[in-house]
Design a protein that fits this description.
Blueprint (H helix, E strand, L loop, with lengths): L1 E6 L5 H13 L4 E6 L8 H8 L21 E7 L10 E7 L9 H19 L1
Parallel strand pairs: 1-2, 1-3, 3-4
Helix pairs in contact: 1-3, 2-3
Length: 125
């Protein structure tokens, strides 16, 4: 299964979603993430939040949709980018209304992280 997670900066939400898909999907999922306007870096708060769960997000990099491989996606999941998220070829499209945690406190940031984890579990099944 190929899953793409898209947000604006590819610094927080989509990065954490890709990480959770890697954790929960293991060999059955190929997870990707990208941003409609990538920041070029993964937020240190996201790296710290995922490190608390044993995942090294520092190995990820922020990237644009143009940098994705030419594969068919089973799921394209957008998070908060609205019109800034272009249409991506996918069998299923979902939009998760998840706030950008970039400027949130650590506690609220981790609540968003945990929400993303639960939603990824639901998709992967």
């Amino acid at each position: 299964m190929n899953i793409l997670f898209v947000c604006i900066e590819n610094s927080n939400r989509s990065q954490m979603a890709q990480a959770f898909a890697n954790i929960y999907g293991r060999e059955k999922v190929h997870a990707y993430s990208a941003g409609s306007r990538p920041s070029g870096k993964v937020n240190p708060k996201a790296i710290k939040a995922m490190a608390e769960l044993g995942y090294d997000l520092s190995i990820h990099q922020s990237k644009s949709l143009d940098e994705l491989p030419d594969v068919h996606f089973d799921y394209a999941i957008t998070m908060g980018c609205g019109d800034a998220c272009p249409l991506v070829r996918a069998t299923h499209r979902l939009d998760w209304n998840i706030p950008d945690p970039r400027d949130m406190s650590e506690t609220d940031f981790n609540k968003v992280r945990d929400l993303i984890g639960e939603k990824v579990k639901e998709v992967i099944g």
